Amino acid sequence: MPVNEEISLIQTDKIKKKIVLAKSFAELKRKACLEFKIDSNNVKFVLQDGTEVSDDDFLQTRSNYTCLTVLTEGELHTYLPQRVKEALDTIATVITKNKRIFIEADEFVEEKVHLLQQLQKIIEKIIVPDEEKFADLRKEHVEWFEGLDERYISKKEYMKGNAEHRIRSYYYKTKVELQRRNLPEMLLIDLLIDLKNLLKRDNYNGHLFVRGELKALCTEEGTFSCQGRYNASKCDKAHTLNPYLSSEHRKLFSTWNLDHRIERSRTIIPAVVNAIRDLPVKSVINSDYFYSLLFTSANLELVHIACHDKSKHDGFKCDKNMCYR
Length: 325
What we know:
Blueprint: E1 5-11, E2 17-22, H1 25-36, E3 43-46, E4 52-53, H2 56-61, E5 67-72, H3 80-97, H4 99-103, H5 109-127, H6 130-133, H7 155-179, H8 185-201, E6 224-225, E7 240-241, H9 247-253, E8 257-260, H10 264-277, H11 287-295, E9 300-303
Helix pairs in contact: 3-5, 7-8, 8-11
């Protein structure tokens, strides 16, 4: 085993993952018990196929990336064929018990959404092993990075860049549209500088797509839920996606949109234009307000392509009382 090679550890049915450096099985066991606060006399380590690891022999011949499940006394580990059977049995039971909800499409909407999400999670457990689901570095899940530039060394880095790219594009589109409006040059320059500085302060809100970040739009595992059409409180189609699972999931995520509830081109840009042209004496443009509308989750919603309504968002307007400060 290479000196100080990384090994990832997870606990049964928990999303918490620890990465430890170990030269021997004894060191691995000691560090795992410390990290998870468990008794060293009642712990064992197994691979995804159920094989138990108990000595240095495996550690010296293992692959570049290894994810071990940490089991304590009384906990069981189910290997893949058994998980497939259990998952299929569960799916059949859920559908059988809730047949009416699935058949009557126009009723039981909330119940249907909940059941579809439940089924999706069951299926994902079959198709994506834990070591790939929780992996982050390129060397841990090489297939996930298929087609991506070599500069990306982790999933989180790529997803952060993906969010930043979308936010940057909104900034440049906004800048171009405002520059076409024949506005007082210095007022426009001041506003654009303010917006750019706020974006730099917040790192272009790249955290929106990074699992584990406090204000991310996804769960700790990386699952994103569609927030629904602009005039709905939530998605009625149960659209969810975890781009961290595979390259296919990642590619599908590119079709999801960050949609402005108060529309950028139809509503926010005209409001900015009017605010600049009608600027009262001794007042300044409230750049923080327009920043929140243009570039943050205060007005941005992540939506599946089927829920991205490009028609006019009637009823969603800027607050005139917030345009100045």
